[in-house]
Amino acid sequence: MLIREQVPLAPLTTLGVGGPARFFIEAGTQDEVVEAVGFAHARQLPLFVLGGGSNLVVADNGFPGVVLKVGIVDVLLLTAANGEVIFDAGAGVDWDAFVAETIEAECAGLECLSGIPGTVGGTPVQNVGAYGQEVAETIREVRALDLRSLESKTLSNAECQFSYRSSLFNTTERGRGRYIILRVSFALRQGGRPGLRYAELQEVFANDSVEPTLAEVRAAVLEIRRRKGMLIVPGEDDSRSAGSFFKNPIVPMPVFTELAARMEAHGWQLPSYPLGEGFRKLPAAWLVELAGFPRGYSKGAAGISRRHALAIINRGGATAADIMALKENIQARVKDEFEIELQPEPVFVGF
Ligand code: EPU
Question: Which of 143, 147, 178, 204 is spaced 20 to 30 Å from 237 by Cα?
Answer without folding.
Answer: 204
